[in-house]
Amino acid sequence: MKPGMKLKSATCDTEVMVIKCGQGTVECGGLPMAVDRPPEPDPIDPAHAAGTVMGKRYVDAGATFELLCVKPGKGSLSIDGAPLTLKDAKPLPASD
Amino acid sequence: MNISIILQMAADAAEDRVGLVCGGRRWTYGALLAAARGAASLIRDSGARHVALLDESSEAAAIALFGAAIAGVPYVPLNYRLADAGLGPLIDRIAPALLIGDVARAAGAWTQEGLLPQSRDAFVREAEGRGAPAKDHKESDGETIAIQLFTSGTTAAPKAAILRHSNLLSYILGTVEFASADEAEAALVSVPPYHIAGIAALLSSIYAQRRILLLPTFEPAAWLALAAKEGATNAFVVPTMLARIIEHLDKTPDAPIPALKAIAYGGGRMPLELIHRALDLFPGTGFTNAYGLTETSSTIAILGPEEHRAAHASTDPATRARLGSVGRPLPTVEIEIRDEDGRVLPTGERGEIYVRGDQVSGEYRERSALDAQGWFPTRDAGWLDSDGYLFLSGRADDVIVRGGENMSPGEIEDVLLTHPALADACAVAIPSVEWGEAVGLAVIVRGDKAAPSDTELRDLIRSRLRSSRVPERILFVDALPYNELGKLLRREVKTWFKD
């Protein structure tokens, strides 16, 4: 895995672009994400079903991983089972 | 990483929403993406190593920017205002290149092999007609060059600054919330495509899904007309543009003032008098001062709308002075002020501005200017106040060193501009046998005023600043040399003192 790579969910429509990454498995809806989607989606683990929001960035507690949601879906993101959280962005006035 | 994700996401989220308006034609995000993919296929087939634009702003600039990104080839918008003799060497540095725009000029002026000229219309037509390239550009490591911009070269020969996809994406993701613009919002873009602000405007507006209104050549009446016709809510201007808009409104009192929600400005020094005037004239508009450089992927510090209004309304000198600052660093970058030996200076002391962050490339074709810790020396001089506001005091190269004492031209010019008879002033270093360097002044007298005497100007400076700032020579001139974006060409003024 490396920055710029796109990963797809095995459980829903979610797609992310990797901004930062470290050691660990990126999951969505409780199952590992991959470059290609399986032909049939697997069921979403209800523990990881909060959904993803287009254009939001998600980070892990250690700020090792950062993922940008480029397509939203019903599953939510985790690394090795630990849920990712929304990265707080301080809203800035449009400067250009 | 690849900046084409910006357009891809906009098209995925709102394919049929209008993203760009130019010359009366409207482009949806879907249509822009399809054309960018077609352009990528064309670029790939051409074998070009660079995609150059020699043209005013148009849809071709957006299509070429994203098309080049998808094809994995650097995009090089050129300053079409340069003379053939100035442009030739730049074009030599990017061949073989696909050159979009002024084909007649390209054919007449340069004959080198590997220059593939294509007119704007032909390029757009072909980009729209073709499908996507067979395969997307193979992602390397996110370190691919997205853009190469030749710096304006006000102090030296143009340098080829390069911005990588990762720099530009860091800037956009760190400063713009995806799809945050309401569908009614529209940004009026009148900066040329070869300026970093022109590129940043395309990227941030598309990511925010704010409709772009392109004005190819800035002219105040056309700017006001387009703002009114398309209901512009945002605009970016360089200070000279704002000055000309205000001048136009003064001359045509009946002209309606556009109801802009926000005006951002940057790219040059904003005279205090002008920004106070603008704040009065546009009472409902939020002003943002954006300071940045080509090498930093645009903005690194911002003075926001509330700070403008607070400073404008304040009687407290320190708060009021903030209007002369460029605000505070973005949360995603770090700024330090250092002396000539690279030591970090304390608050309030003037030195060279250093910046660090993911959006900072600090890189040229020939070499990287970053130090071992990733800091970029901007060559801009400035200082930070106790609340972290950054004040600029000219280019580090413009500093006048008289007998070991450093002085910035700006402090001298600011004092001179308080004289009612002076319209403009420029202070430069001139050779001095006694001091090494001394202050030379070129001033413009207002048309309706009598010229002040040399003694009067010297007394004014002596009364407000130290005596070391008093000029050794004063020239009264009719005009000062500015480039088209309002940057004062001090290099040229210096030559006036060479006799």
From TrEMBL, chain B:
Pfam families, per database record: AMP-binding, AMP-binding_C
Record-level GO BP terms: fatty acid metabolic process
Keywords from the UniProt entry: Ligase
Domain AMP-dependent synthetase/ligase as annotated: residue spans: 9-364
Domain of life: Bacteria
Domain AMP-binding enzyme C-terminal: 411-487
Family annotation (InterPro entries): AMP-bd_C, AMP-bd_C_sf, AMP-dep_synth/lig_dom, ANL_N_sf
Alphabetical list of SUPFAM superfamilies matching this protein: Acetyl-CoA synthetase-like
Gene3D superfamilies linked to this entry: 3.30.300.30, N-terminal domain of ligase-like
Xref: CDD domains: AFD_class_I
MF terms in GO: medium-chain fatty acid-CoA ligase activity
Secretion signal, residue range per the UniProt entry: none
PANTHER family: 2-SUCCINYLBENZOATE--COA LIGASE, CHLOROPLASTIC_PEROXISOMAL (PTHR43201:SF32), ACYL-COA SYNTHETASE (PTHR43201)
Protein name: Acyl-CoA synthetase (AMP-forming)/AMP-acid ligase II
Species the sequence originates in: Nitrospirillum iridis
Native organism taxonomy: Bacteria, Pseudomonadati, Pseudomonadota, Alphaproteobacteria, Rhodospirillales
